[in-house]
Specification:
0% strand
């Protein structure tokens, strides 16, 4: 907060791109996203194609759920860093939120190719497969996720995939683990629309 105040004392017309970057970062850490955004946009205009600035802009838009703008910046980053698996993963994440699943798969497979051992793309591939009705494929990726360091959410989604494939005993065991880990018994409410759209009924 002190650094932010000091950077703001520099007359706007005299701030360098680097100072705008630092001002934006301080504002972001103080949860002043509007101010951070303006500072990053100014930094980008003063020094275009800065990977650091573009990452901050993309992250800020993604956190504010403006996935179209976030994707634009991730696309620009991808042109500058074509071998960066994390950027490909973020592109896919934005496309999933925009319901452009076919395009999302392209970037997920790219991220998986570039960084196959991290496991990050496996989780995203599993979720995108689940959303698009590719339940067997989702189950295969969730099997890899569950063999690594799964979260309760991973088990929940893996249970959905198992249930929608008709593997009821496997689904039951995974749901049971979710209840044990989280203590919540209403865990199906959040994903009810997904399950109903897949053909399950409220009675199911």
């Amino acid at each position: 907060a002190l650094a932010l105040d000091l950077y703001q004392r520099i007359p706007h017309s005299r701030r360098t791109a680097g100072q705008q970057q630092k001002l934006g970062y301080c504002a972001e850490q103080c949860d002043r996203h509007d101010l951070a955004l303006q500072a990053y946009l100014t930094a980008d205009s003063l020094k275009p194609h800065s990977v650091w600035t573009l990452r901050r802009l993309a992250t800020l838009y993604r956190h504010d759920a403006d996935y179209t703008q976030a994707l634009n910046y991730y696309n620009e980053l991808a042109d500058l860093c074509p071998e960066d698996a994390d950027i490909a993963l973020r592109q896919a994440e934005c496309l999933i939120h925009l319901k452009q699943y076919d395009n999302a798969f392209k970037f997920l497979f790219k991220a998986n190719y570039l960084a196959p051992d991290t496991g990050h793309s496996d989780r995203a591939l599993a979720w995108c497969s689940l959303l698009t009705g590719k339940y067997e494929q989702a189950g295969q990726y969730y099997a890899k996720v569950l063999a690594a360091s799964p979260t309760a959410t991973d088990r929940l989604n893996a249970a959905h995939a198992a249930w929608l494939q008709g593997h009821l005993s496997e689904a039951f065991e995974l749901y049971r683990q979710v209840v044990k880990e989280t203590g919540h018994v209403d865990f199906l409410k959040e994903d009810a629309s997904l399950l109903l759209d897949a053909g399950l009924s409220p009675d199911d």
